[in-house]
Backbone:
């Protein structure tokens, strides 16, 4: 009986031993950043590394490992890690993804594997924020996540839209049309919010960064003598985003919102609830070619079931 148990355990461990031997032979994980912690992501990650192990670095400066693995590491900011050991590992093994060289266009293509619209929806719905889905997003939707080095894939220039060209009145109208459907009063335009939103989208644009909310402390300032926390809605869409696209996309989250359990789905319906939050009185928005942001005064989405019942008319 013991013999059978040992044989069974050996058979179960054989795939892992094979992977471990392959990785050890190449010494590829020495000085590498941490692997994904989620079991499924970790398994997919290791398989990608092993599959790619026979590919040699060429004069075209390709990734040594699969683009999926390198994309994941870039998503975790290891290309610009403050730890020299990790940064050097990335430059050696994920040079194309990190943009430290000119990639061979036949080998390195940073495109979404799903339709762009689907990937953009995934990002809008907050999948990028869920640790157990980050490897999936980095692998399947790198372009939508903002982790592509655009210089390697496109000659199109990404330029900020001039401030005077921003359709302020139209954007305010789009917001208020949606709010009226849910019993919320019209918003007014908030110039300071628009200035803050402008800084947000330009920072995202300059860093070619995945969507990442600013800390609430940075979105807190005095309004009429009292400190007010401001809400923030973000959107990324390639090749171009505008206010109508953003507002319509955020409003689609109403189909996800569950008024009986508002706090459960806040990560996937929070854009919608912020737009129609009754205690919000003004908004300011800004955009670059691919990034769009709106800052709301005051913030909605309080972590209180009572506040959702009071502020969101489904």
Residues:
């Amino acid at each position: 009986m013991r013999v059978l148990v040992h044989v069974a355990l050996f058979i179960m461990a054989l795939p892992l031993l094979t992977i471990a031997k392959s990785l050890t032979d190449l010494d590829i994980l020495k000085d590498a950043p941490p692997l994904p912690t989620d079991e499924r992501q970790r398994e997919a990650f290791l398989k990608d590394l092993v599959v790619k192990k026979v590919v040699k670095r060429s004069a075209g400066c390709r990734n040594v490992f699969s683009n999926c693995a390198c994309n994941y590491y870039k998503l975790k900011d290891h290309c610009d890690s403050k730890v020299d050991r990790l940064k050097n590992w990335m430059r050696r093994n994920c040079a194309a993804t990190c943009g430290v060289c000119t990639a061979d266009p036949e080998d390195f293509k940073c495109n979404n594997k799903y339709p762009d619209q689907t990937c953009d929806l995934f990002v809008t719905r907050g999948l990028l924020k869920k640790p157990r889905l980050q490897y999936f997003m980095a692998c399947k939707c790198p372009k939508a996540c903002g982790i592509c080095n655009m210089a390697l894939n496109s000659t199109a220039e990404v330029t900020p839209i001039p401030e005077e060209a921003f359709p302020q009145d139209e954007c305010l109208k789009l917001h208020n049309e949606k709010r009226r459907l849910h019993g919320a009063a019209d918003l007014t335009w908030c110039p300071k919010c628009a200035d803050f939103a402008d800084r947000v989208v330009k920072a995202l644009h300059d860093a070619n960064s995945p969507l990442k909310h600013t800390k609430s402390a940075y979105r807190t300032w005095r309004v009429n003598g009292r400190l007010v926390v401001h809400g923030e809605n973000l959107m990324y869409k390639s090749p171009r985003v505008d206010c109508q696209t953003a507002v319509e996309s955020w409003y689609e989250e109403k189909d996800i919102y569950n008024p009986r359990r508002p706090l459960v789905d806040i990560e996937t319906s929070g854009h919608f609830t912020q737009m129609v939050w009754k205690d919000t009185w003004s908004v300011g928005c800004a955009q670059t070619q691919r990034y769009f942001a709106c800052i709301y005064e005051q913030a909605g989405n309080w972590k209180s079931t009572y506040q959702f019942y009071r502020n969101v008319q489904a």
User: Anything to note?
Assistant: The longest helix spans residues 2-26. The chain is about 45% helix and 10% strand. The CA atoms of residues 166 and 271 lie 21 Å apart. Confidence is low (pLDDT under 50) at residues 9-26, 52-59, 102-107, 149-161.
